[in-house]
Amino acid sequence: MIQFANVVVYNYQYLLDPKVAGIISKEMEKECVVVFDEAHNIDNVCIEALSVNIRQQTLDGATRNLSQVTQLIEKSKATDANRLRQEYSRLVEGLAQRGNLAGTDTWLANPALPQDILQEAVPGNIRRAEHFVAFLKRLVQYIKNRMITEKVESESPVSFVTALQNQAGIDQKSLKFCYDRLHSLLLTLEVTNTDEFMYIQTVCDFATLVGTYTRGFTIIIEPYDERMPNIPDPVLQLSCLDSSLAIKPVFEKFQSVVITSGTLSPIDLYPRLLNFHPVISNSYKMTLTRDCLCPMVLTRGSDQLPVSTKFDMRSDPGVVRNYGRLLLEMVTAVPDGIVCFFVSYSYMDGIVNSWNEMGILQEVMQHKLVFIETQDVVETTLALDNYRRACDCGRGAVFFSVARGKVAEGIDFDRHYGRLVIMYGVPFQYTLSRILRARLEYLRETFQIKENDFLTFDAVRQAAQCVGRVIRSKADYGMMIFADKRYNRHDKRSKLPGWILSHLREAHLNLSTDMSVHIAREFLRRMAQPYDKTGKGLNATLLSQADLEKMEKK
Amino acid sequence: MSRECCALMWRSNSASTVSVCPPWRGLVFSAASSAAEMDLRPSRMGIVVDCVEAFVREFFDQNPLSHLGVILLKDGIAHQLTDLSGSPETHIRALRSNMESTGDASIQNGLDLARGYLTQIPSYGHREVLLVYSALSTIDPGDVMETVQECKKANIRCSVVGLSAEIYICKLLCEQTGGMYSVATNEGHLKELIMEHAPPPAAQAEMSVASLVRMGFPQRGAEDAVALCACHREVKMGGGYTCPRCKARVCELPTQCHICGLTLVSSPHLARSYHHLFPVSPFEEVENLASANGRQSLSKSCYGCLQELPTPGGKVKGVRLECPRCRQHFCFDCDNYIHESLHNCPGCESNSVILSQLSQ
């Protein structure tokens, strides 16, 4: 079907994740134009496409799968030994893959990139089905042993493979073929309930990636989650550190690739992260008939005390009260819907609790209803639905959400659903996570990108993404408040996208709560006046035929 | 012809609205003001009452045959402040005496109350509600969307003048019922916006059902006549008007006779209503002075004031405007005066006079 279509729209994973791209996008021609829309998170998507996590359940499931496979082999040997023999001879002749796959076998696609798959004969020690199963059992046992550890271990794939060879006698070349061999075996055995074999597939993914790549990956074994040290939860993470790996085949195969987004800032960081040289790198401003954005940077409360979500200031009751008063004053000045973003679920829980104890939450509820996002999808959907209903019928509502949550990524709060968005704090990632630290180190060594720069870039990009939920059309209007004293500093402010910066006037920086309320009231009154949607003269936003012809001549 | 408008006003600690409900025909408008908010000096309630008072006087000036009622929104409930009546003094008195604001505002309650009164009005009356709203939200007992749909079905045109910011539900209300939504930026602007609603809207032909309305044209009594006044129930000296049907005495016009219910008006009142229904057509500018109409030369002076008009090759600057019916030329000032105050074109009036004179 794909080869007949003129335009194909699908997820990034279908093009970037080798597991699916090999099947779905194989038939795309070179002359295609590939456009990555909303690509501000593309480096994260590339990394996730090549990363594998293995937990205790995975290994238990893999063991189960292996015994199932053994049974199937025995059964098939008894009924039709021919099939297995044919497979063996095919492997000897060097057909590592079986050729065109049926459309339903998407889960069996190879995790490594196409050019990295060896086009060679499968090594002798795993050609026979029983030998291969034994090989996998040894691998699973080794991984289980590695995961029994008291402290965090981190090593490169090379050393892991070396240790594997010394202790379990598994060589690197066989590891590379793990995935294909499993695929071919399951096809031969005519397995139909592919969901059950997901665990062993994960282990084979891991094995193939570890065997294929030497650079740009790291293996981290953590015995427990640092935030909950008492619960043993060992996890082995093969994390890709280099986001350019997954997107390289796209750049090489297709003639034109366009990466675009509303919050792609700073724009020169992306070519470095994805390791390519852009032919054109341009940043466009929005043409608006009237100033329908009002971004503000709020650094202190009405009592002139600075506010921030910095770790040491977070639980200061003065800061909490100031944040609460900000919300309360805004609720009395702004109609319809208000959205608030917090830096994490735990922070949101803590601050909402404190507001409840101080009585601020009750006062807010007198003016508007309050809805909150939780980690449960169904609850959040229900909350969103009722929030919209409250805004529609004039009651007004406030929505509490988290900066890296599902709502911030996907839901729009346009028109009266979002007249004001408050970003409480700077949404940094969890900086003590080992994977993040490994990635930062890799970036520093390979691309000379400073750790602080990258962290700030990531945080500000997330904040801009949250805040951009509010404006969705030229006729829409909304206000944005960045409520943290760190936003006033040039290194953070300069990373905001151009369309926000162009509306961020000097008079709107370094505000306190009462000043921002005053600006808000005035802005709302101004925006409620009737205006000419097409704009005339300087503010022309609709081009006529004559305008287009004039532009063409130039 | 006459307009029924409901004004909703209610009071609350944050918003106080005044609404006027006409039981018969009337102008109802509501004003909401937040007395707690001092962003409009001296206080929102004070400013709103001042504007509304000016509006009431202007309204009766422009629509002498209409009725007005006031509804107040207070503590989440709608109170009827004054009945639908044709006398501005009652409304102003009631407004001035009720100036505190407490509680929340509920658009649904106000609209329901207004609708209840306005639906009793016969179909040739034009029904309107003007809502002066200063709160940012509405606390309703039920679904406000249903109320909006019912107002639309009952042909009630609702307009809103907001004092704080644009609220979605008000915008929806105005769009659905064909009204106007505006938000005031300061005191002067607020007065302008409220006064904009005083003159009646353009006649909607499809809504008016032709029917005959019975009216009385009372005579004014002599200065020394003594009679029992029907509206105040006390003896009054001099002046007053006598209802032609039941001979009761009323103090002011236009009004409804308290005894027999006949609408009492005087001819200027009727003429004034007529002016708004059938306005003078806009004058066209005479573009090409050079090419004079062959049959006659251009008149040198304005038909209305006899001042000099610009001619080709002449020294006088300005524009020359022509009435499309009688083809007379007027100057800019006369055009202004004719369209805004006089509501009659002198050329058209004299044309018929001349023709009738000639025919005699």
From TrEMBL, chain A:
The keyword Iron applies. CDD domains: SF2_C_XPD. The keyword Isomerase applies. One of its GO terms (cellular component) is nucleus. SUPFAM superfamilies: P-loop containing nucleoside triphosphate hydrolases. It holds the Pfam family Helicase_C_2. Its cofactor is [4Fe-4S] cluster. One of its GO terms (biological process) is nucleotide-excision repair. It catalyses: ATP + H2O = ADP + phosphate + H(+). InterPro entries: ATP-dep_Helicase_C, DinG/Rad3-like, HBB, Helic_SF1/SF2_ATP-bd_DinG/Rad3, P-loop_NTPase, RAD3-like_helicase_DEAD, Rad3/Chl1-like, RAD3/XPD. Its EC number is 5.6.2.3. One of its GO terms (molecular function) is ATP binding. PROSITE patterns: HELICASE_ATP_BIND_2. Keywords: 4Fe-4S, ATP-binding, DNA damage, DNA repair, DNA-binding, Helicase, Hydrolase, Iron, Iron-sulfur, Isomerase, Metal-binding, Nucleotide-binding, Nucleus, Transcription, Transcription regulation. It is found in: Nucleus. NCBIfam families: rad3. Belongs to the helicase family. RAD3/XPD subfamily. This is DNA 5'-3' helicase. It comes from Physcomitrium patens (Spreading-leaved earth moss). The gene is LOC112288023.
